[in-house]
Design a protein that fits this description.
The protein is α/β, with parallel strands linked by helices. It has 6 helices and 5 strands. The protein has one domain: Methylglyoxal synthase-like domain (Rossmann fold). The longest helix is centred in the C-terminal third of the chain and has 13 residues. The structure holds 1,3-dihydroxyacetonephosphate (13P). The site of 1,3-dihydroxyacetonephosphate has 12 residues, from helix 3 and helix 4. It holds the Pfam family MGS. Its EC number is 4.2.3.3. It is an enzyme of class 4 (lyase). Keywords: Lyase.
Length: 129
């Protein structure tokens, strides 16, 4: 599966910890990320990650484009709900496209914990249809 990994600055340590914990599952998938998030994850885990631009510089939109092209199966996006983001329209657009194309989206650690187990259990096989 093609999985997007994104985290706002105050959530980056959370996504690093999450990917360390689930490296054994994630290494079997194609991983893509916004720039800074991807660098932190690959430095911490050694996972191979395709990195787009940083979020504020267009990375969210690049991931949105992949969704529109049916080239993304899951979006794990650790959002910071307590800090205003200069690129909020890009973030909204990315989440909107997940809804347009029925792409599973989780926006916090709790959702990600459930989704990664579902992924490992084969619950994403419908995406191959
Ligand atoms: O801002 C982001 C998502 O909206 C994340 O971008 P970075 O991973 O480049 O920090």
């Amino acid at each position: 599966m093609k999985i997007a990994l994104i985290a706002h600055d105050k959530k980056k340590q959370d996504i690093v910890n999450f990917t360390i914990a689930y490296t054994e599952i994630l290494k079997h998938h194609t991983l893509l990320a916004t720039g800074t998030t991807g660098k932190k994850i690959s430095d911490a885990t050694g996972l191979e990650i395709h990195r787009f631009q940083s979020g504020p510089l267009g990375g969210d939109q690049q991931i949105g484009a992949r969704i529109a092209d049916n080239e993304m199966d899951l979006v794990i996006f650790f959002r910071d709900p307590l800090t205003a983001q200069p690129h909020e329209p890009d973030i909204s657009a990315l989440m909107r496209l997940c809804d347009v194309y029925q792409i599973p989206l989780v926006t916090n650690l709790g959702g990600a914990e459930v989704m990664i187990r579902a992924l490992d259990a084969g619950f994403f096989d419908w995406r191959k249809l």
